[in-house]
Amino acid sequence: MANSLRIKVHLSPGARADLQQLNQRALKKPHGREEALLEATIVMLHRLNGRRHPTKPLDHNPHFADLSDCDTTYVGADPYEKPPLRIVSRDIRPSRPDGITRREIVAIGARQNSNVYRIAGQRLGRPTGLTLAELRAQREPIADPSRARQRTTAGFDAPSSSEPDLQPD
User: What is the pTM of this model?
Assistant: First the structure.
């Protein structure tokens, strides 16, 4: 499988909460728009699991946290309207050539006012206006061991291993 990219979706705790909020809204209005959006989101998550699905790479925007290592996927239930939801994800490559790429779902949210991108940046702990290169430079180890204890890179660009992956039925 040298040319085949294997992907497994992982829902971050925040993305799980986003999905639960979509579910709560759908329960309030069964058979309505919210339920259709929930179903479309679940279908899209399954499409993102196990294979490449068309996603759009995000660029750095100085008005937001740098999400240039992330992709966005559009989700909508009505083919005649602009998809109102976005799924922000990032692929974390395996350390071994035969490993499985982990597609971390960072946020699922509204396209309106770019809210989903603001939330994704917050969840990744990234400040607005700094590039990923600038963040990495700030977090590099310091030569003085007494100062090194003051900085940590724990959790930066690493998925939580305590959360189960998305398991398709």
Answer: 0.77
